[in-house]
Amino acid sequence: MKTVLVTGGSRGIGRAVVKLLAKRGYAVAFTYRSGDAEAAELVGELALEGCMVSAYKADNADGNALARVVTDVTARFGGIYALVNNAAVSVVAPLIDTSDEDLSRTLATNLEGVIRLTRLVCPLMTSAREGKIVNVSSVWGISGASCESVYSAAKGGVIAFTRAMAKELALSGITVNCVCPGVIDTDMNSHLTADDRRALGQEIPLGRFGTPEEVAEAISFFIDGAAYVTGQVLCVDGGFIV
Known about the structure:
By secondary structure, the chain is α/β, with parallel strands linked by helices. Helices cover 48% and strands 15% of the residues. It contains eight helices and seven strands. It has helices at 12-23, 36-48, 63-77, 100-128, 140-143, 149-169, 194-203, 212-224, and strands at residues 3-6, 27-32, 53-57, 82-85, 131-136, 174-181, 233-236. A seven-stranded parallel sheet has the order 3-2-1-4-5-6-7, sandwiched between helices. Strand 4, helix 4 (100-128) and strand 5 (131-136) form a beta-alpha-beta unit. The termini are far apart.
């Protein structure tokens, strides 16, 4: 049984990824920063279906915590076949109102955590001569978003990192790809008012917000197959930035 490590797996897109991959026969380990009850509920739900799932409370901004997770997952499952870098935080504010703390946390979670965790799993994958890395960026990493400049910068960095690592790891049999969700119906967009949601929906050619499950399917594509696809950026956005 191949093992997948998913960051930010207790809610939203990450939760959908954990459920989809576990039901497709992978052993899944996932991290979460808060929400012990949600994480435990997810593990219990999937265990009843015969799935092998483990949860690890670890902040994606904490490099030492990520190292402990990788060590434990490797000891328990014997390796890590695929990594889904999904964990993220967002600060919605003009740049001049963004604190140093918000700046540091957004970059540490959304970009530095992706780099650190990739660095940790690379030796395992290169030793096995196989592996799949899927980074979750955002359409804002391509087009930028007003009042989300730091988030946009971090997500743009994830795209550049994806392309660089695809070149670096290709000869080791490892693919590295990126999924860029558009407006997805998750907690991260819970701050939107009803008017905001209507206005955004009118800007999306498909006329609606996406679901976490639709993003999970795109992520699964890069893990289940796509053996000759690497360094690619796939937008799952209903045509939002076409």
